[in-house]
Each structure stands twice: as structure tokens, then as C-alpha cells.
Amino acid sequence: MRRSSIAVLKIFLLLAVVCSSIPWTPTASGKALPQLTQVTKIAPDLLAQIQSSPAVRVRVVLQLNGAISWLLNLLLNGIGVSIIDNLTSLNILILELPGSLVGTLAALPEVVYISPDRMARSLGHVTATTGADDVRGTPVGNASELDGTGVGIAIIDSGIDVTHRAFLDRSGNLRVLVSRDFTGENRTDDPYGHGTHVASAAAGNGRISNAAYLGIAPNANLINLRVLNQNGAGSTCSLLKALNWVMNNRTAYNIRVVNMSLGQAAIDSYKNDPVCRAVRRLVNAGVVCFAAAGNNGKDDNGQKVYGQIHSPGNEPSAITIGATKTLWTDTRADDEVTSYSSRGPTRSYWTDSNGTKHYDNLVKPDLVAPGNKLVFAESEGNLLVAQHPEIDAGVSQVPGRKMMILSGTSMAAPVAAGAAALLLQSKPSLTPNLVKTALMYTAQPLNGYNLFEQGAGQLNIEGAVRLASLVRTNLSNNTPLGDPLLTTVPPTPETTIAGYSFNWAQGILVNYAHATGLDFITKYQKIYGTGVIVGDGVIVGDSTLTRNQAMMSSGVIVGDQILMSNGLPLGSGTVFLGVNFLLGGGTIMSDGVIVGDGVIVGDGVIVGDGVIVGDSTAGSGGNPIIVIDTGVDYLDY
After folding, report:
1. Please, which residues bridge with residue 444 across strands?
2. For 365-403, how does the pLDDT look when each residue is reduced to its tens digit (9 = 90+)?
3. Threshold 0.85, pTM exceeds
4. Hey, which of 53, 175, 225, 486 has its CA 20 to 30 A from 42?
5. What is the set of active-site residues?
6. Which domains does the chain have, with CATH numbers?
């Protein structure tokens, strides 16, 4: 027998031995299922799929804990296995294979977790009410004002219409530095219409309508990473490819901020979810990642629903953003959390070897920001406007100058992402955790909403920039716990916008509850470093939370309740839920309140007054103020 034939025979024999050595349990129907040791490494929805149809080919995300071993390499090159992509920076392989092989892969020690390539869908005056206008004229370095100059914001969405005037700088140069398509449609424009609106909320200029619809960071650079197709749908695979691209190119384009106004079902625990793990890698590498909370805050009957935070918003290192409505008044005295904004806790879970589910139950969102009826750039000929002509704002009839109205946490997330760009322009040395802390600590707690609804409170750019500008530039992971954080005395924890004054939250969320104290802005906390999350400062006990003395200083107070805010700083208000309910796992509040344990179906953009029931207030300033464009570019923004 020839040597090549012998080698092939040995490979088939070895594969037969490997596959036959992995225990499978027959069901009543005679189908073989993996044992529990393997089940814990397979996402529950993928497991259900291969149980029902083991012969059907599936596309999966394979997470590894290191280099590919010879045995795994042998399996990957076997019959029926196709390697779609190798995301080396994330230690992830995208594979297509028969469902019957999933258990075989799960049994290998270098395989961390296997999940399906799930579908991802988009979710749906601002500078004045957020406080961005209050810091706009602040000189920073060689820049005459704080406008995001030099900071790269990656918009992972449905594309950006680069012909729109909103994306030029004052010299007429395009600020979209690079465009990449990960949908397979080989285009980087925005036929769906979502990404262009999102991008201009974060960084649109003021050329149209005399800056009436100015983005938060109007001179920041944009990186267009298209993962949602012409119908607004995408997949885990395309999202992971985009995140992998950011990891590899973040330095070349100074990408400091990523915005993901999209979401998918938060089924797997953040510890296993490949998108969450990819986000964690980026945050550890110094990139601030924002995620929309989702638009599932109420059921079909208009009743409040808890536990509907989407992935990757269930990742603790991400900054998860819910939506508020401003009623189109600059004052924040009348602001409310929208009824559709998804509420926590996160209900993603992992399953132990006994088959018991362990829910993450993290307090999310982290913040809320304006996201109701926002007017921003409209891509030419997009599907959303074709399906809903009423969302064209009527600002202009000229292509490249049109604006549209959208609502949703998709719109709130880029508002916060733009704020992060301003913070990083003012203080480039800030770590993602310091950015997150500054945004939460200075947020405005809204009266009558609990932590599951608003997180630390509503975004306050004036306060966050004022605080961040005082942070020392020589901080590092080696800075001792308790060292001075600021270069001067702490700022007054109060902001006034449009004549309305409010107190800052003066605290942050830490996984299961909140922590407060002046030490957060006067002393360096180890949770501000890279490679950790802010929740690492808390020790979880038997239905109690205590301060981790190695991570947070003695002046920090950790709470044990989920509170209903009275509009005063974090830690005040009435008890909504004891933290022991979260730590206990299982049902939160009552059966049926958390619908589907985080499984979201039909996620999409919220458009039109008739769709957002109860979130428009006729005759009270709830509708957008439309400023007709003159057709002449306004440059004094």
C-alpha cells in the first residue's frame, strides 16, 4: 500500500477512535446526545437544534483557550467541516459542520464554548439637553474646542452613507476614514438606513439646518463597519468579524470607542457568549464599548417587563445604554425613561454539570440617554423611510441633506458614545473603566425609576467632562490603591443645564447593586485599571455584598438593595428589591415577569408616534422641532 494511502487510513482510524470514545446518551427517540460534561460547553439553543436534527449542518462560533492542538486540527480538516473564518485575535473559529460533530468538539479540552451564529438586528436640541454644548468651547491641547477631534468611533451597524453632508469636517474632508463590509453584500453604504442615523447622532456635523441636529462629537473620525444587511439583519459571525477587525486596526485609526446599536438574544452567560468575550478583549485593550440595552421594556399589553437586556449589553465591561425622552425641551426637569427601554437584570445563564441554570442577574443598563424621536441623518433611498415615509423629518428634499426621525436605545447608545469621545479628547489617558465611572458618577438620577430601568441615571456630559479633565495623566495598573486621582480638589457634584440644577449620582453600579462614596473621585481605585471590571471591587457573599479591600478603598460604601430613585444621589430613595433575590438566582420578582429569560424575537427600530404607544405627549413639546434646511452649509458649529 502506498505511503499516502496509509496516512489517510491512519487519519480515518484516528477519527473513528476519537469520535467513538466520546460518550453520548441515547434518547427515547434513539438520537444520541452529548453528556452533561459536554453540554455545559454548548449553548442551549444550539444543543436543542442538534438534538432535534443532528444531521443538519450548522454554523457555529468555536471559542478556544489557546493554540489549536493536533487533534483539533485533525477534526477541523475532516470530512464535512468547513472553516469559514479564523479570528485569531479573539481566539475564535467560525465553522460549518454537521450538528452531530458539535459534541465531539465540545469534548476537547482546548474548546471553551460552542454557540450558534445567531441573528443580530438593529434596535432604534440633543447636544443642549445632554450638556455637550456646555463643554463645546473648552480648549483642549492644540484644539480650539472639545468636539471629538482625533478620536476614532467605530460604528458597527448597517453602514454609513458617506455622501451625506453630516460626515464632513469644516474643510470639507470626509471624516469616515475607512469602510468595511462583513455582510457578504459587498457594499458599505446604508440601504437600510439605521447606521447613518446612528453615526450622525454620535458625530454628525452642524452643516444642515444651522446645527439644529448636531451630533455629540461633530469632528470625531468614524470607522464604518457594516454588519447589518439591506434588511437590517446580521449575525454573530459578522459582528465578531467586525470586532476582530477593530482589535487588529484600533491603533492605526485611533479607535477608542465602539458603538453597537444592535442586539441579539442574551442566552449564554457573558462568561460564554462569544460577542461578550470579544467586547471584553477590546475593553481590556483600551477601547470603550457601548451597547444598546434593547427596546423590549414592555409587553404587547403595555405592561412593564424586566430581564430583557440584549447581548452584548449583558457584558459587564460594556457600557449599556437605555433610552429617555426629553419631550424636546432643553431642561431636564421633565425627562423620563421611555417605556420601551429594556430593563435589567440580565437573564443570560450558564448550566452546570448537574443541569442547573445559573443566571447572571447583573444590574443593567449602566446609564440612560436621550433616544426618543431623535432627528439625525437619513441615508439616500433607505428601506426604513420606504416602509415608513412619516419618519422623514421634512428638513430637506436634497439628497445628502435629508434627516429622519428614529426612536430607541439604538439612538441613545451613540449619544453616549459621542460623549466618551469628548472625554477621551479631553484626557486621552483615560481607561475604559475610568470613562465608565465618570459617566455613571456624574449621571442624573431620575425620580421614580429603579436601577433596573435607569442604571446610575441620565447621561450628563457637562459633569463627566468636568470630572474627567481633572484626572491625573500618570495613572496605571501599578498606581497604589488610594493614591490621589485628581490634580486638584474634587468638583462640585452638581450640574445646571437650561436653568435646571441637579445632583450627580455620586456612585456607580457594581454588578449586583451600587457603590457610593467621595473616594471614587478623590482616590485611585484598582477597578479603574485594565484587565478588570468595575464589579471586581465587590465580594459576593451569602445574600450580601461587601467591598473588596484589594480593589476599592475604605471610603467606598457598597449597597445591598436595588433602589427606586427619589431623584437624589445614588443610594437614596426607597428599596425596590433586595440584592438577595438576585444572588439567589431563579425567578426575579414573579413568574412570567421575565419573559423568555432573555430570548428576544423580532427586535427592531421603533418608528413613528403610533408605534411608541404612551411615549409621545401631544401638545407638550413631545414632538421634534423641525428646522427647514436652507441648502447652504452652516459652519459655525
Report:
1. 458
2. 999 999 999 999 999 999 999 999 999 999 999 999 999
3. yes
4. 225
5. 157, 194, 410
6. 3-117 (3.30.70.80), 121-598 (3.40.50.200)
